[in-house]
Amino acid sequence: MLIHSKELLIALRHVFYTDAKLGFLPHIASLLDERVLLGPGPLRTGPSSLAILGYSTLADLIHHVRNELSTELLLRIVRRYSELIVDTTVTHTLHTLACKLIIGLMEIFNQFKDKEAEKPIACSVLSTLLETLTQRMVASQQITVNILAIRQDQMSESLSNLVAIEKTRAIPTLAYLAGETIAASIHGAQDQSCDVFQS
After folding, report:
1. How far apart are CA 4 and CA 136, in angstroms?
2. I want to staple 43 with a disulfide (CB 3.0 to 4.6 A). Which of 50, 90, 107, 188 is the partner?
3. Mean pLDDT per segment of 10 residues, for the chain of length 199 residues?
4. Exposed e or buried b for every residue in 100-127, given b needs 16+ CB within 10 A?
5. Counted domains in the chain
6. Residue 26 lies in domain
């Protein structure tokens, strides 16, 4: 199932470069539901995760049809991808992807400043974005504290128990606690944070 799902998502990307992409417009709202986009089961985390491919494919579609989206749907998109930014159970790559998409949509909301009726919506979106990034910084700070405690062998009992649990999972929920991924998590977080602002 995983292989077929990946092949389908990859094939869909080619469709987005044709006029046929407009046929997906009525389905974007449904695809924002993770159960529809990724299906059931532990497919959102781990090395074989569909999450990155699924959300990046959806982001690609949104980018290509962004000027055709209703204000209500744009708000739903910002809300869903904002949730991903503060979700500590997904990879840094997915955090970066969500940031890039939302930043890319800001140009549309920026156009609202010339429309009196749309100004409150633009203010609401910008406030949501600011709150999201603040929450992300708080979450990142806690992750950094945990990683440093692990590397310096100064874990609290609760953190030690959490690490032990994560190491027993076939697909870790918090990948940065899964032993060998700690160094990669630190370097990945630094590199991908730079990518968001350089793109």
Report:
1. 33
2. 50
3. 70 85 92 84 55 89 91 90 82 84 85 75 80 81 80 83 74 60 46 39
4. bbbeebeeebeebeeeeeeeebbeebee
5. 1
6. 2-198
